[in-house]
Amino acid sequence: QVQLVESGGGLVQTGGSLRLSCAASGRTFSRYVMGWFRQAPGKERDIVAAISSGGGDTVYADSVKGRFTISRDNAKNTVYLQMNSLKPEDTAVYYCAARYGDYISRARDGYPYWGQGTQVTVSS
Predict the structure, then answer these.
(1) Cα gap 120→124, rounded to integer Å
(2) Which of 3, 5, 51, 87 has CB atoms 3.0–4.6 Å from 25's, for a disulfide?
(3) For residue 27, is pLDDT > 90?
(4) Count of CB atoms situated within 10 Å of the CB of 73
(5) Cβ of 54: how many Cβ atoms within 10 Å?
(6) With contact defined as beta carbons under 8 Å apart, do 79 and 72 qualify?
(7) Residue 74 has what DSSP assignment?
(8) Residue range 74-112, pLDDT digits in tens
(9) Among residues 75, 92, 97, 113, which one has the least CA distance to residue 22?
């Protein structure tokens, strides 16, 4: 089992940047696919980005391609989400998620482990 704690959210103006971090417990972090999801009020929780256990493969939602970058440091048990050129529509609670194995799922129910979320607000 793995426990996840997100940090780095906050309030930023349109066009600004934030970097989210997700620290994971446990000694087998490098065996987990890691994902970032987000949920805006009244909307579904959707994938933003995900990264393979070794870090060599990534997937992104179309809405964030070219602006967001997911990365991980397995020595630090941490996954990151660098968010640039932020827009008001990026406002949401951002969640870190984990699944054991090699398959990079885009589905919310593909991830059994979740953090509690961090709020990102982009002002116009």
Answers:
(1) 13
(2) 3
(3) no
(4) 12
(5) 12
(6) yes
(7) T
(8) 999 999 999 999 999 999 999 999 999 999 999 999 999
(9) 97
Q: Give the integer Cα–Cα distance in Å for 39 and 60.
A: 15
Is the pLDDT reported for residue 47 higher than 90?
yes
- HEC readout, 9-70: CEEEECCCCEEEEEEECCCCHHHEEEEEEEECCCCCEEEEEEECCCCCCEEECHHHCCCEEE
Give the pLDDT of residue 57: 97
User: In this structure, how many other beta carbons lie within 10 angstroms of the beta carbon of residue 27?
Assistant: 8
Q: What is the dihedral of CA 119, 94, 70, 22, to 10 degrees?
A: 80
Terminal CA-to-CA distance of the chain, rounded, Å?
40
- The whole-chain average pLDDT of the chain stands at 97
User: Tokens for 100?
Assistant: 């054991």
3-class DSSP assignment, residue 88: helix
Structure tokens belonging to residue 104 = 């990079």
